[in-house]
């Protein structure tokens, strides 16, 4: 799996395999970071960084062949030393890193499909544009993910070549971009005799924002829930603001009152 850097950064989470366990610590093969010969870089977890509190038997916590998510404490490229911590990784971080690793393994397979169909040798493809893709998008999976929803993103980032249409096709066929959802409560009242109609019109205007997935639900007068679903939080926040502004502006123009309060979306 290609990486934009030969060494991880301090504070980074890395995925690796335990190769050797000693009484004083464990050596980890960093599966994501390879040297020029294709061999994985090696990191070390001192026994003090294996688990909180006193560790008497290190093998109670780590064993050869075990896959671990570790935090990088320090890096010395001159000496080839990478110091790691296991105890400083919480469960949420561990799950996220494992999912990232799975995504990258999947992206590697997809990249092989792309270069195979483009009739480009894999190593040459990485050298010519694969490594640059990782630099631009952070991960190969990220490039496939963005290409699945934005066909022009690779060219916008300066990439050229006959492989681009194939990359986009593979992305669209294999990646379902994640979507985010945000919501809130609109409180609307109107004292005029057509007040109910004015509130209804305001909510309809909100739902017709940017051709996006905006939905409004009745909660209980005078409260109405508005929900926005989009490909990312930036898009969702922008759409929500426009939708709410439309509703509030319409209510004000009809002599009514309206306010908005965000609601937390539970994962």
Descriptive overview:
The protein is α+β, with helices and mostly antiparallel strands and 267 residues long. The protein folds into 3 domains: 13-88, Nucleic acid-binding proteins (OB fold (Dihydrolipoamide Acetyltransferase, E2P)), CATH 2.40.50.140; 92-174, Translation initiation factor 2, subunit 1, domain 2 (DNA polymerase, domain 1, Orthogonal Bundle), CATH 1.10.150.190; 180-263, Alpha-Beta Plaits, CATH 3.30.70. It has helices spanning 91-117, 122-137, 140-149, 153-156, 163-174, 195-207, 233-253; strands spanning 13-22, 25-34, 40-46, 67-76, 81-85, 180-189, 213-220, 223-230, 257-263. A 5-stranded mixed beta barrel has the order 1-2-3-5-4. The longest helix is centred in the middle third of the chain and has 27 residues, at 91-117.
- Secondary-structure class: alpha+beta
CATH H level, superfamily name of the largest domain: EIF_2_alpha
Shape, please? Answer: flat
Strand content: 25-35%
Largest sheet: 5 strands, mixed, barrel
**How large, in whole angstroms, is the Cα Rg?**
26 Å
Work out the helix count. Answer: 7
Give the tally of structural domains. Answer: 3
What would you say the CATH architecture of the largest domain is? 2-Layer Sandwich
SSE run: EEEEEHHHHHEHEEHE
Q: How are the strands of the biggest sheet laid out side by side? A: 1-2-3-5-4
Please report the distance between the alpha carbons of the first and last residues.
30 Å
* Unreliable runs: none
The CATH topology of the largest domain turns out to be Alpha-Beta Plaits
How many E strands? 9
pLDDT averaged over residues: 90
User: Percent helix among the residues?
Assistant: 25-40%
**CATH level-1 class of the largest domain:** Alpha Beta
